[in-house]
Each structure stands twice: as C-alpha cells, then as structure tokens.
Amino acid sequence: MRDTKKQRRELEKQLSEASSYKHWLATATNLDELEGTLAWREEDGCELLHEALIRDHITAMKRCRDKGDTRALTRVLQESLYRHLGEIGNPDLYAIAWSGTKVLVSDFLDEVERSMNFICDNPMPGVSDQQKLRLFRDAERVYGRPALMLSGGAAFGIYHIGVTRALWQEGLLPDVIAGSSMGSIVAGAICTRNNHELERFFNEPGEIHLDAFRWLEPKRIWQKRHAMDQFQLLHHIRTNIGRTSFQEAAERSGRTLNISVSPTRTRQKPRLLNNLASPEVLVDSAILASCAVPGIYPPVTLQARDKDRGEKGGKPYMPTERWIDGSVHGDLPLMRMARLHNVNRTIVSQANPHVLPFISHHHQRGPGASAKQAAASLMHAQVATTLKLTRNSWSSTVLRPLLEQAHAMATQTYLGDINVQFPFKPLLYRKILSNPNKEDLEMFIRLGEQATWPRMAMIRDQTRISRTFSDCIARLEKACAANDNAAE
C-alpha cells in the first residue's frame, strides 16, 4: 500500500511536469493502470452507456459496409447517431480515468467515422456526387460544429496561447473561434493568419509583441478618467494582428473570428462582431473595444474599412455608439454563437480572474467538491440578488450604468460544454495588469497546455464527427469540381 501511494505521488508529479502531450498521456495511462481505471475503460458494464445497443449498431454498420449497401448504412448511421450522441457526450464518462473514457466509445466513433467515409467515397445508387454533397452539407447543418471560446483575463489571458497551441498540435483547433477582452487578442492573432503563418506563431512565440500595458501618470489618470494608455494597447494589437477587416481575416485564414463587445448605453445590446454580421469592421478596433475595461481604458468607436483610403484607411462604424469590454455583458456569447454558426459543442478556455475562485472545483469529484460547488452557487446567487436590488433602488442615479455592468458580470454564464480553466494561483494575481517578460510568456503558455491535456480525449471524441463531416465535404467538393472541369 505504501509503495502504491509513493508510485501515485511520483506519477502525479510527472503529470504536472510533463513537457508534451505525448509525455502527459503516457504518464496518465500508467496512472490509470496503477489506480485500476485502465481496466474500467476496457471492461463491460457501465450504467452511463447502453452498451448492448451500441454494440448492435456497430455490428449493423459493419454488416452494411461489408455488403457495400450505402443506403442501408446511411439509415443505420442516422439512427445510431440520434440514439447515442447524448450518452457519449456525457462529461461523467471522462471523470473516471485520466487517459480517456470507455474503449467502447472509441470503438463506436471509429465505426461511425469509417461508415461516413465509406458513404462519401463509394457510389450510392441514383445519387450523383453533387447530390451526395448536398446530403452531407444538410446533415452537417443538422448536426452542428464545435467552437472555441476564449474568455477575458488581462495578463492571465496569455494562457489562451497555450490552450490553442495544444489543440492545434493535435489537429483539434476549431475553425470557429470567439474571444472577449484579452481572449479577443489571441483569437484575432489566430484568425488573421493563414496556416503557414499560424505554424510560425505557435512555434516561435518569442516573436509576439508583449508590451500592451502602460500606466498613465496620476495627473492624466485624473484628467482622462482611465488608468492606462489606450494608444499603447492599440500599438500592441496592430503589431501582433495588423489592420484587417473581419471579411479579409476570414478569407486569409479560413477561420471565423468572433469578438464580443459591450454597449455603454443601457438600452443598447451587446454585439458579436464577425464576417457575417459586420464584415467591413476592422478587427483591431473591435479588439480595442473588447479590451476597454471601464476605468482602465476609455470606450471605443468601432472602425470599418474605408475602401477609398486603401488598406490603412478606416471610417467610424455606428459612429454614435461607443463600446467597452466584451466580458461585461458577454464573456461567452453562447446563444449568439449557436444561432450564427450552428454550434453544437462549446470548448471554453476560462481565465477571468474574478471567475476562477468560483470554478476552481469544477473538475473535482467527491464530497469536498460538492460542498465547494454549493457554497459557490450560494454566493453567486447572493451577489446577483444584491446587485439587482441595488440597481433597482439606484435607478435614477449616475451609478446606474456601473450597477448594470456589475449585475451583467455577476449573472452571465462562464462555462461551456467542455471547460479548460486557468489554475487558481493567488500569487499570480499581482501580474494581472503587468506586461509579461519572456519567462512569464513561457510560464503562461505552459499553464495553458497543461490545463488542456486532461481535456484532450473529451475534445477529440466530442468533435470527431464534426471533423469527419468537414473532411468528407472537402473531398466531395473536390470530386464535384473535377467532374465540372471534365465536363468542360
């Protein structure tokens, strides 16, 4: 028993010190073997899954493939996905073993992927490639796709680079990415680069411009009513991202960038800026607005591409409105993302300093974690109720806008379907509003990677079908284009 505890401590230490996902996964597998959860992954019997039915569907898909019956395979696949998606998406399946969930889940997803590829690559009687392409597009639209959402967090938000790099290295970085405040800078850096440029961004982070914060002199703080130099922040944004519109960014990167901004007027609604809703808006102005924390930076008027003035030209967009930090009203614009981009699975990277103390227990299990969750929920409800009552009582005072913002921050949702969160480290709070040095940059990126690796199996499994849809559609589009060229 003593040797087992010693081995467990040693393996847990190796997990915390892992320098790559490969190293982390090998150590996690050894830890699962020591704790007996590796056997749980492989054995039959699990109340979280309808195992017998899943195995029946796997057998049925194999039978249809062996017969070459694409029509029957399509029917089995549709029924199977509809019946089991809720089960295999259950987060409790990933809370037992370090290295992943039941092997049966992987077997099922393997067969689904093989079946989708078989339908894509083999003839279907009476159905042309163009018709099959429409069928896959319609099915993908019904199924949905994943999105990555990067929270605010000031300097803590640098850890988003580690999260996104870990996903990119495993081929799991979603094409739809949203960011607010500091998360918008990282999202913008990713979604304004093509694949070659993104590879350099992740592999050579030392090239990133780091000087975003510059405190104003006390006299100017009093005069300006904000504490930091907005021009320095804008220089930081443009050095890392350039000056491009949302439409231009989408065309260059093939990804969809979304940036949250909050209104200064009480009756105006928060906006989610992207190439669909605001294609001509300049990304740098959107990020500047999303970073405009009240009291730290002044509100921002958005800028749009002015084609008469060339690539560097801009003109006011909605000139009578000014915008502030996206985290105030929509740190995670879940509903708007779902409506605009047909999102069925949200991966959230959360680094907001005021949120971390209340969600640090989120991935824990047992009575202690339940007690923490109950206490956090009670405190959250109390704060929200107090702010609501105060807001109503002070409705006619100059404090009303501040109370509205505080109430919005206290009542919004800060978690998604899959959550990667910055570790709660109180000593790091002194770095929140300071520019990182090279060592800090490496530290934040490493924290982001280490926070992502335990969620990697869940992210891979729960985005696998969406990624297979994308691959199949790309092949069918290529086949249709080839057919069109041959016809000419």
UniProtKB/TrEMBL annotation:
SUPFAM superfamilies: FabD/lysophospholipase-like
Name of the protein in question: PNPLA domain-containing protein
Sequence motif GXSXG, residues: 179-183
Active-site residues, as the UniProt record annotates them: 181 (nucleophile), 325 (proton acceptor)
InterPro entries: Acyl_Trfase/lysoPLipase, NTE, PNPLA_dom, Triacylglycerol_lipase_N
One annotated GO molecular function: triacylglycerol lipase activity
Pfam families, per database record: DUF3336, Patatin
Segments forming domain PNPLA: 148-338
Organism name: Marinobacter algicola DG893
UniProt keyword Transmembrane present: yes
Spans traversing the lipid bilayer: 142-162
Alphabetical UniProt keywords: Hydrolase, Lipid degradation, Lipid metabolism, Membrane, Transmembrane, Transmembrane helix
UniProt-listed GO biological process terms: lipid catabolic process
